[in-house]
Amino acid sequence: MKKNFFKSLAVCSLAAIMSVGLAACGSPDGGDDSTGGTVSLDLWTPITGSDLTVFNRMITKFNQEYEGKIHVEHQSNVRDTHYQNLKNNIPNNGPDMAIIHSQLVKNYIEYEYIVPIDDSFFTKESIDSTQYLTNVMSTLTASDGSYYGFPLDVHPIVLYYNKSIVGDNELPTNYTELMTLAQQLTKGDVWGLPISTLWPTEFTYTTALYQAGGEEIDTATSMPKFNTDEGAEAAELLRDIIYKWRVSPENLQTDADLGLFTTGKAAFHIQGCWNILALEEALEDDLGVMSLSGMLTDNTNGNYQQVFARSHVFTVCAQRRNISQRKKEAMVTFIKWMGENSAEWSDAGQIPAYNPARDTDTFRNAAYVSDYGDPENFRTAASATYFESGYETVFQYVTTIMTSADSDIRTIMKNAEEEAKRAVNTEMYG
Asked: SS3 letters for 152-167?
């Protein structure tokens, strides 16, 4: 593992020796919370927008229920700022807990930004890992059986449609049917399926890759695996939306496809479920939602039903001093409560990762979430230490492929693979 924060521990220890005491580093129990009173927990998350309203409502309910015992202080920032703050402040000035996306967990383990939630946390109550979606928990389990986090949700991309434009047409069940209907509905200033060459095409490409039978990364080496027949097939499929089927304008920039959909100039739109509240406000009763499962392929075997998804995961951050037992127990109480009450999170359009939450009336009665598809088909990214280095490089090349009808897909994918491997090696060895 990277030993980036042990330098801080060494400095802290030296200061303690020089001052003839342990005051500089704090007590072995981790501070005042070991003596009684309310346990304060700092939580940092990348939750923003309309989701934040629902999330803060849940935090408020927890604080009210545990008033005088546990208080959670929540800080939220946009994704890039959130992760930079974590890297800049752990372990000296970081939070007690942080939500990070599931595909980053193994990297944060490697750099020792987070610590395992082991048996020492479960002295008063425990969290039953079998009650969470297996396809998410499998990315969070340590080799010794402990966990590096528990998921709040799983949030896939979905296929939105405008009911007034689609009309009485039968909804598609595969790629060809989707393209045929989108082509039929492309007329005047209305497009069938506008698609950006930028955001969120990385999610669309990954879904097409899964459904073609491909994988994004080798979990053992963190090296990319997208330069394959399946990877090329997925890229060509996206390019064909623009140049073969002609159901999208060329070279749409970030959110230009979203803009066409929200203004009634697109029949279909591929986007994350996290946009559901904004889309509902824009289209009102005209908003339709359906699963993207099986929609980016004509295959009916293998992984053809899998859909790209992410997961917000509660993790425990590394600290400059020992984490007190009371804080460990308080964290377990909070994480467990959030899971057990995560049906409310579906008000933000998110799918609870806690299985019993999806069996509640609150979840069943939530608008749209049941239309996303079977959660067992939502595939979170492979757990690999250098996921971002090894895979995210590909997306600028997918963009290149989609900007020309004559792009050399295999050459571009080969170049993407080579650059991704260089990036992984740089991160691994400097």
From this structure: CEEEEEEEEEEHHHHC
Question: What whole-number distance in Å separates Cα of residue 204 and Cα of residue 401?
Answer: 14
Please choose, from the candidates 67, 59, 23, the residue with its C-alpha nearest in 3D space to the C-alpha of residue 335. 59
Helices in 129-262 by DSSP H: which ranges?
134-137, 163-166, 175-185, 201-211, 229-243, 256-262
Distance CA 229, CA 98 (A): 38
Tell which residue, 205, 383, 392, 218, has the closest CA to residue 307.
Answer: 205
Query: For residue range 189-230, what is the model confidence (pLDDT) as tens digits?
Result: 999 999 999 989 999 999 999 999 999 998 888 899 999 999
Q: Comparing C-alpha atoms, which of 297, 290, 309, 294 is closest to residue 161? A: 290
* 328-360 tens-digit pLDDT: 999 999 999 999 999 999 999 999 999 999 999
Structure tokens at 239: 């390019």
Task: Please report, as a single letter, which amino acid is at residue 417.
Answer: E
CA distance 343 to 341: 6
Residue 429 CB contacts under 8 Å (≥ 6 apart), including other chains: none
pTM over 0.70: yes
97 contacts 314 by C-beta, under 8 angstroms: yes
Are 131 and 354 contacting, i.e. CB atoms less than 8 angstroms apart?
Answer: yes
> Whole-angstrom distance between the N-terminal and C-terminal Cα of the chain?
14
Distances 350 to 54, 81, 101, 379 between C-alpha atoms, Å: 10, 22, 14, 15
Assigned CATH class of 6-152+311-364: alpha beta
Q: What top-level class would CATH report for the domain 155-309+393-429? A: alpha beta
74 CB-near residues (< 8 Å, 6+ apart): 43, 44, 45, 55, 56, 59
Domain with CATH 3.40.190.10 in the chain: 6-152+311-364, 155-309+393-429
